[in-house]
Specification:
This protein is an alpha/beta fold. It folds into two domains: about 30 residues; about 150 residues, Glutaredoxin, CATH 3.40.30.10. It contains six helices and eight strands, in the order αβββαβαβαβαββα. Strands 1-8-7-4-5-6 form a six-stranded mixed sheet. Strands 2-3 form a two-stranded antiparallel ribbon. α3 packs across α6. The longest helix is centred in the first third of the chain and has 25 residues. The N and C termini lie far apart (about 75 Å).
């Protein structure tokens, strides 16, 4: 093989490896991030959520929950999600200590209603949850949720005021709520 053919072969292999690396990086999941982060919905009006509670079949909506002038924590979860399972004790404690200020609305994604009900009951969760449909009109797509757990804290004026990805501790949720209440006192 001539020197020129070696260079062409080397250039071709290098280009092929570079293309493969770009393909891998473009299709991999984002780095694991947990806690409070910035959302495209931050400060904007939250899309309304409505549907039947998976346990009671009673119609519920974000708008109806906000009528009590409380914050609403929307929890996107799935029964198979390990982090969601770990979050349940934190959510239970947060709800217990803040029930006069915050309600929780679960959105069960990529799961069956039966599994969602069993999951919530196994942890003693008392808040309503809606089963999300798959597809372009799903609640998860509307909110930009990639995978559970993701949580949005919605103010009584329906503005998205905090966003958590990869789970949240009771302390993180309390800190977000405290920050909001302090900001409201200043206004």
């Amino acid at each position: 093989m001539t020197y020129r053919k070696h260079i062409k072969t080397f250039a071709f292999i290098t280009a092929l490896l570079a293309a493969a690396l770009v393909a891998v990086l473009a299709t991999r999941s984002p780095a694991s991030v947990t806690g409070k982060v910035v959302s495209d919905l931050g400060g904007k009006t939250a899309p309304n959520i409505k549907g039947a509670d998976i346990a009671s079949d009673k119609q519920i909506s974000l708008d109806s929950m906000l009528q009590s002038h409380k914050y609403v924590l929307i929890d996107f979860f799935a029964s198979w999600c390990t982090t969601c399972q770990q979050d349940m004790a934190q959510l239970e404690a947060f709800q217990f200590h803040n029930s006069k200020k915050v309600s929780i609305l679960g959105v069960d994604i990529d799961d069956s209603a039966a599994n969602g009900i069993a999951f919530l009951r196994s942890y003693g969760a008392k808040w309503p949850a809606i089963e999300d449909s798959n597809g372009p009109d799903s609640i998860a797509v509307t909110y930009g949720v990639a995978s559970p757990p993701e949580m949005f804290l919605i103010a009584p004026d329906r503005k998205v005021v905090a966003y958590f990805v990869g789970g949240a501790t009771e302390n993180q949720l309390n800190a977000a709520l405290d920050d909001l209440q302090k900001a409201n006192l200043k206004n």
